[in-house]
Amino acid sequence: MLNVQGVYKLIDDNTILRNITFTIQPGSIFGLIGPNGSGKSTLLRCITGIYKMDAGIIEFNEQPIFDNTFIKEKIGYVADYNHFYATYTVQAMINLFHDSYPTFDPERFRQMNELFKINKRMLISKLSKGMRTKLSLMLALSIHPHLLILDEPTSGLDPASRRAVLDMLLTEVCERQIAILIASHNLSEVERICDVIGILKEGTIEYTNSLENMKKNIRKYQFVLKEDVPTDFSSIEGTISYKQKGRVHYLVTKDNDKFELAMRDVNTHFIEEIDLSLEDMFIYSTGGIEHGE
């Protein structure tokens, strides 16, 4: 299990991460989402031990990760920008991983490369962003990680390759019960494969829950009143967003019970729930611009 408790990180006297706390169980895929500049990549670098946190605990299987070679050998990491040695060939990178990780499996790499078909003689500097992402993912999976950390793992990939990558991740979780942490802006992909969601905003985890519970808790309604009533719907406890367009009222709540209680004595022509995607829930939760009314 990955255990992150009370983590703070400062860079140049600026607090980038504040009191970050969450856990990831084996066999679970945790989706970390947040606006640009919210601290996602910094958090991943702290978890992988690249950055040293200023306060808090980051453990995997009850052992600290930072400066722990034994634990780091069990962690695969795919960065958004893969700064491989530019003068290395693909084969040289394979050799480096083979020498660095006792569990590196050349046959596993070969099987994945039958799908992605990256020429081992190519220089890293000649690979496109998508090809570097594929290479990084294959190298990370070839060490048979117990924990896999992914920063924008489908960035630069074509649709077929994106689907192949997501299928690989689901297979790893189902067959090996590994823990996966994904930071991504592609919310449709996060919604497809993640079972737990964490929303990071301005360096703080604002919300974390299972995707199933998130969909139950954050709901959107539209309704039309039979007569005007002096009710301030925006003041209903749990309201995230409220708008009125003509006679139609739109309200998003994170406390459905409070909304239903407040509406019990309100006379309406109709009231109906509108399905929300993860993208919609993210925008409402972070105070972003509303769309698609």
Automatic annotation (TrEMBL):
Coiled coil: none
Leader sequence segment: none
CDD domains: ABC_DR_subfamily_A (cd03230)
ABC transporter domain location: 2-227
Key word ATP-binding present: yes
MF GO annotations: ATP binding; ATP hydrolysis activity
Keywords (A to Z) from UniProt: ATP-binding, Nucleotide-binding, Transport
Repressor keyword on record: no
InterPro entries in the record: AAA+_ATPase (IPR003593), ABC_transporter-like_ATP-bd (IPR003439), ABC_Transporter_VariousFunc (IPR051782), P-loop_NTPase (IPR027417)
Alphabetized PANTHER family for the sequence: ABC TRANSPORTER ATP-BINDING PROTEIN ALBC-RELATED
This protein's name: ABC transporter ATP-binding protein
Organism whose genome encodes this protein: Vallitalea pronyensis
